[in-house]
Amino acid sequence: MKQTILIVDDEKDTRDLMARALSLDYQVTTAPDAEQAMLALASDPTIALMLSDVRMPGASGLELLKAAKAKYPKLLCILLTAFGTVDQAVAAMKDGAEDFIMKPVDLDQLDLRVAKALEKADLEKEVANL
């Protein structure tokens, strides 16, 4: 069974591009903003990883990260931004982000980093079970 990924980005073209690229290996759902993302997370407990843009109207990706991790602590989160700084990346990691990817997104790199985050989580579950 394919793992489920939630892609959150206010730019429809970017959201659709990433969804198409990842849909070969994963079940993909999308949301245009933080509010819709939280609804998607609430309605689908199988979502394993959330990819979110940092800059969006309404709540930012960082605010979404905090809210999502507070409610779903095991959810993996990767943030995307075209305007990232080292301080922002460090803050995101402290708040529970697995990774921080710069836009424009290299689709091969995206696939690799998503796979790496999911593999790491699987290994951590395996260790916990042992």
What features would you highlight for this structure?
130 residues; alpha/beta; 5-stranded parallel beta sheet; 49% helix
Task: Give the secondary structure arrangement, pairings included.
Layout: E1 4-8, H1 12-22, E2 27-31, H2 34-43, E3 47-53, H3 61-71, E4 76-81, H4 86-94, E5 99-102, H5 107-129
Parallel strand pairs: 1-2, 1-3, 3-4, 4-5
Helix pairs in contact: 2-3
Description:
- Helix 3 (61-71) links the parallel strand 3 (47-53) and strand 4 (76-81).
- The protein contains five helices and five strands, in the order βαβαβαβαβα.
- The relative contact order is 0.16.
- The chain has a five-stranded parallel sheet, sandwiched between helices.
- Helix content is 49%, strand content 21%.
- With 130 residues, it is α/β, with parallel strands linked by helices.
- It is globular and about 40 Å long.
Strand coverage percent: 15-25%
Order of helices and strands: EHEHEHEHEH
Shape: globular
Number of E strands: 5
**How does the major sheet shape up?**
5 strands, parallel
Rg (C-alpha, Å): 14 Å
Short description:
With 130 residues, the protein is α/β, with parallel strands linked by helices. 49% of the residues lie in helices and 21% in strands.
